[in-house]
Amino acid sequence: LSHLIAYDGGKKFIRIYPEFLKLAASDSMITAANSSKGLIALIPIHPELESDIVRLLVQCENRTYRDKGEVSEECRYIMIGHVLDFFDQIYDSSSYKKDMIAFAKRHTDNPRKKTAQKAKAFLDRHKID
Predict the structure, then answer these.
(1) DSSP assignment letter at 124
(2) Based on C-alpha coordinates, what's the Rg of the chain?
(3) Closest Cα to residue 67, out of 37, 114, 112, 32?
(4) pLDDT band at 15 (very low <50, low <70, confident <90, very high)
(5) Least enclosed by CB within 10 Å: which of 35, 67, 75, 77?
(6) In percent, how much of the chain has pLDDT > 90?
(7) Closest to 91 in 3D by CA, of 76, 101, 102, 80
(8) Which residues 6+ apart lie within 8 Å of 92 measured at CB?
(9) How far, in Å, CA of 90 to CA of 46, rounded?
(10) d(CA 12, CA 71)
(11) pTM of the model as a whole
(12) CB 20: neighbour CB atoms within 10 A?
């Protein structure tokens, strides 16, 4: 849905933006990841929303995600990896580089090996120790 915003001359999407934020904060990692990906696509069109979006994405590290009704730490680790990917997409033009770097630094020792690798690669790409 958010990818249609480029064609939204009437700015109708912004009316449902609060509901879209709720989807990105879902306890379903799949719903949260897909909605978050859409939020990243909004930033170039609505840069005034970047603060809210980055703040919401960073909060994934403290969220509880469920898989088949059960709490899943693995889903949280996967979501953190997705957020690192999202941050990588917007880093160069972002006003929140420090927040993104701090987020990545917190996850260089993530229990999920692939997420830890993403965090380290993010820091390497952006020349941060």
Answers:
(1) H
(2) 15
(3) 32
(4) confident
(5) 67
(6) 74
(7) 101
(8) none
(9) 13
(10) 36
(11) 0.91
(12) 17
pLDDT tens, position by position, 91-119: 999 999 999 999 999 999 999 999 999 99
Is residue 10's pLDDT more than 60? no
Distance of CA 7 to the CA centre of its chain: 23
Q: Is the pLDDT of residue 83 over 60?
A: yes
Strand pairing partners for 71?
Answer: 66
Q: Write out the two tokens for 101.
A: 């770097």
Alpha helices in 1-129, H assignment, sequence order: 13-24, 29-42, 50-58, 73-90, 97-106, 113-125
Helix (H) or strand (E) holding 71: strand 70-71
DSSP-derived secondary structure for 22-49: HHHT-SBHHHHHHHHHHHHHHTTT-GGG
107 neighbors 115 (Cβ within 8 angstroms)? yes
